[in-house]
Amino acid sequence: MRFDFQAVLITLALGAGLAFGQSAPVISAVSASPPGISQTLAPLSGGAFTLTLRGQNFEAGSQVSMGGTVLATTFVSATEVTATVPAGSLLTAGTAAIKVTNPGNAISNSIDLRVVERG
């Protein structure tokens, strides 16, 4: 009886550049300031505002992006970051994905922010 064995290389995909033991950030809630702005709607040609993202696994140096553009971000804690959405980002109606990227390139789920005409 003859047995043929093959070496098989198994690789484990940990996701978006995650190192072993690293967890991706997760956005679970969004709020905006000034309070008249909805958490997922912003007025076309409106003024700058601050988004507060709550969730888990945020790290010092995390960056919030809107539609691929990195926003000025402040790390508050492992469960909260804030970001300033500049008025210039609100000049075109449409939808932009809000994401958090940790320093190790782990990327969160996305929350859509819609820029809509007033009325």
Could you describe the 3D structure shown?
With 119 residues, this protein is mainly β. The protein has strands spanning 26-33, 41-43, 49-56, 63-66, 69-70, 72-77, 80-85, 94-101, 111-116. The model is unreliable at 3-18 (pLDDT under 50).
What labels would you give this structure?
single chain, disordered N terminus, mainly beta, four-stranded antiparallel β-sheet, 119 residues
Average pLDDT over all residues: 79
In quaternary terms, these chains amount to single chain
Distance between the termini: 81 Å
The H-and-E topology, N to C, reads as: EEEEEEEEE
Largest sheet: 5 strands, mixed
Residues in helices, as a percent range: under 10%
Question: What is the global morphology?
Answer: elongated
Low-confidence stretches: 3-18
Strand content: 35-45%
Write a compact overview of the structure shown.
The chain is mostly beta strands and 119 residues long.
Describe the secondary-structure layout.
Layout lengths: L25 E8 L7 E3 L5 E8 L6 E4 L2 E2 L1 E6 L2 E6 L8 E8 L9 E6 L3
Parallel strand pairs: 2-9
Antiparallel strand pairs: 1-3, 3-7, 4-5, 4-8, 6-7, 8-9
